[in-house]
Structures are given as C-alpha cells and as structure tokens.
Amino acid sequence: AQKVTQAQTEISVVEKEDVTLDCVYETRDTTYYLFWYKQPPSGELVFLIRRNSFDEQNEISGRYSWNFQKSTSSFNFTITASQVVDSAVYFCALSEGGTGGFKTIFGAGTRLFVKA
Amino acid sequence: KAGVTQTPRYLIKTRGQQVTLSCSPISGHRSVSWYQQTPGQGLQFLFEYFSETQRNKGNFPGRFSGRQFSNSRSEMNVSTLELGDSALYLCASSIGLAGSSDTQYFGPGTRLTVL
Asked: pLDDT tens digit string along B81-96?
C-alpha cells in the first residue's frame, strides 16, 4: 500500500540556516512519481518538483535541492540559506498507478518557521 | 496562462444543507481532482474526473459527489452537510490523469465552514 511519512511536524530555524525536510515513502510499484509542494498561509499548494522512480539524479534549483534515494525510499528536500518567505507547510506526495487508476497521496506535511 | 480557479473562496453553511463548489482547470488540462484538507486528517483525495468521467474515488461517503463538464470545469457537491465536513477543499488540474507523469496544479481552495 502507498504511504508517505513526513516525520517532522514542525521545524523552526533562524534565517540563513540550512534546513532539510524528510520524506519517506512506501510503494509496491516500480513506476511511481514523487512530488514536493509548498503551501503558504494563503492556502494554495505550489508545485516545487516532480521525480519519477527511474530518475535518481539529485536536483538543485536555486536555494532548493532534492535528494532522491530509492535504496532508503526517501526523497528529502533541503533549503539552503533559508529566508522568512520560506515559512510554509511543505508536503511530499507519491503517485502510483494501478488497475483503479493513478492515486496520489500526501504526507502529513512539515510546517517550517523561518525567523528573522 | 491563468491558473486553477475555485469559487466561492469561502462558504458558511449549516448542518443538513447541501453545497456545490466549482473548479475551473488550467486551459488545456483535462483532469480535475478534488481533495479535502483538515487539520486532523491532512490532505485526502476525494475523486478525479477526466474527460467527463470519474476515474478514481477516495474513501468518502456517497454524500460527496462530483461531475465534470465538456469544457473540463468541475463541480463537487456535498449533501446533508455535517460539522466534520468543515475543511479546505482543493481542486487540482493536470493535462493527463493525475498521478501519471503529469503534474497537478492546485487552486486556492474553498474554505467551507459548517455550523
């Protein structure tokens, strides 16, 4: 069965600190997709990144980087030199297909507070 | 390109009433998925519509229903509202079926309060 675990409920850092948000997933499929979304106080989920199960290359986008490791079923997200605007809830999500169609499930989210 | 739009943004209803929420996907997107977000249960998948057909459904009672129109706009309906239905309802659109290689893009949500 699908499962996404974000063990960190809340993280608080001071501006300019680096922070890593953990995501561990469970799936029986060999083809699946992993996502990270950001939910600022306004409520709208903002897409950050998508990874398919065959692409284990790490990715860097500005201050954001993602580390995908199939061996540990983890897809961790690091923010370098955090800023106050990074304060939000971050969700990791897993999508996999099946006879019933694709399903996407989300982790519980990690609330990040970045203090000035 | 305009993003996903949802109307209304806020709703207050009383128990027993019914409510209809609307979602307009990004132009060219054929899939619309609905999610319920609550502090206790997090983000839960309600259902997905693609080409006017429900393709997938989460574990919600039959009081929750939806439909999709030929222009890909979607509505979801909740009948006989209960206090526990108070939540942020998020709509997401994608070009193809959600969960495939296509990314879902979310709207701002409709915050429903049931009194």
From this structure: 999 999 999 999 988 7
